[in-house]
Write a structure and sequence with these properties.
Number of helices: 19
Shape: elongated
CATH architecture of the largest domain: Orthogonal Bundle
Number of strands: 12
CATH class of the largest domain: Mainly Alpha
Number of domains: 3
Largest sheet: 5 strands, parallel
Helix content: 40-55%
Structural class: alpha/beta
Bound molecules: fe (ii) ion
Length: 504
Amino acid sequence: MIGDSTIHVLIVDDEEHICNIISEALKADNFQLSVFNCPKMALEHIKNNPIDLVITDLVMGEHSGEQILETTIERHPDAMIILMTAHPTVQAAISILKKGAYDFMVKPFKLDLLKSTVKRAIEHQKILRDNVRLRGQVDFLKIANADAAGIDIDHFLNMVVESCKKELGAVAAGIFEIAPKTREVLRFASACDREELEEVVLDESVLNKFARTKSSKPVIEAKRIMHDGESKIELAILQPVFIRRTLHGVINLRIISQFGRITPGQLDVLTILSNAAASAMSNHKLYQDVQRSYLEAIRGLANAIEARDRYTAGHTDRVTRLAEMVAHALDWDDHQVMCLQMGCTLHDIGKIGVPDSILNKQSALTDEERKKMISHPEVGLRIIRGIDLFKPAIPYIRSHHERWDGKGYPKKLKGVEIPIEGRLLSVVDTFDAILSDRPYRKGASLAVAVGELVKYRGIQFDPNIVDVFLGVIRRGEVNFEEMYGRSEDISCLDEIVVTEKASV
Ligand SMILES: [Fe+2]
C-alpha cells in the first residue's frame, strides 16, 4: 500500500458475463481487479478499499451507476470512472460527465476500445497525480533560490515542513537538524494542525532508527487508530536528511487517512524536499565557515593596525564588547548584534591607509595630516566595498565619527540622520579611548570618561544612547578589572547622573 504502483480497478455490472469479459480483457500485472455483479456490495467495497479506476454499468436494477459514481468521487476524489450503457441518451451522457465521470461507453463495445479508454484514463490520472510532484519541485526551486541568497536557515526549514505537510497531506510535519558528531539538535521547525502533535514530530528519539543505516530511504510505520470516531490508518514517516552519507537531520511526518496510501510521486516529493533541506544545511554551514574565515582574516588585519601602536591594543575587542552591551540594552535581535560585531571589528579598518607617523604622532596634526586621518572611514568603505558579506559593517565604518550636532565627519550628518549604528559606536569608541592608556598619558578614570559623555550628551553624542550606556555601567555590566586591568568605582555615576539630570 505504501509507495506501491498497483492500480486498483473496480468492475461493476449486474450481468456476470460482462464482468467476466472485462476482467479477462484487463488482466495486467499491475492491475488489481475487484469484480461485483451486486452493486450494493460494490458500494461497500468502495467505502473500505483503495480505488483508482471504476468501470460500471449505468442501469443495474434498483441501483444506478450514478450511485457508484457519487460514492467513488466522495471517497476517492482522484479515481477515474468509466460508465457503460446499452441505452444511451445525450442528456444522460452530459449529466454523468458533469458529475465527474471520465468517459462514457455504449454497449456493445469492442474490447480494444475498452482497453484504449482504460489506458487513457490511467494516463490522465497519472498526469493529475504528477501535478503534486511538480508543485513539490516548484517549492524546491523556491527554496533553493532562497538558500542561494545565503539567508535565514530557520525560515528555510519552516518552508520545508510547510511544503511536506501540504504535498503529502500530513496533519503534522517536523524537521530537526543535528550536529552529526554529537547528535545535539541545532535547530528545528514544525507545522502541525494540532499543538500536541508538535512534540510527536519533534521527538529526538527517532534518531535511533538511523543509528546503523546509511540508507536515505524513509522509514514508514502504519497503525490503525480511531480518529474523529472513525477507524483510520496513521502513517509515521521518517525521512532522514543525509549530507555525504552522514545523518544531519530527520523529517518526521504524521499522515492520517482511510487507506494509508502514499503514492510513489509523493515519496519522490519527500526525497526532493529532504535533499533541499540537506543542501540548505550544508550551504548554511559553508556560509558560516566562510563568514568566520573572513572575519578572522579581517580581525587579523584590525589587530595588525592596532599593533602599529601598542597602546591601542585591544581597543577593537573592548569597543565591540561595550557596543554589544548597549545593543542588548536596546533589545536588538541576534542578527543586529551579529552585524554590530562585524561593524565594530571593522570600523577603523581604513586606518590601514594612514601612515604610522600620523597614527602615532603625539603632538597636534597639521592640516594635511588631519585630512589623511579623517579619511579613514572612507578608505575603510573602499576596502570592504564589493564584499557582500561585509555590507552590514558599512554604517559603522561610515558614521562612527559623525556628531549629533552635525560637526563630525565625513558627511556632517546631524541627529537621527546619523545611522543608529554610528551613533552607538561613537559613544563606546570615545569612552574606551578616554579610559585607555596612551603613550603620553595614563587612561583617565571612569568618573572622567562618564563626565565627558554627559558633557557632550546631545552635542557630540545621541543623548538616548548615552543614557542607555550609563544604565549599562550603573548595572555593573562592565567588568573594568578584566577590560582595563583596574577596578573602577561606579558610585561616581550617581553624582554624575544627578548633574546630568540637572543639566537637561
Ligand atoms: Fe575611527
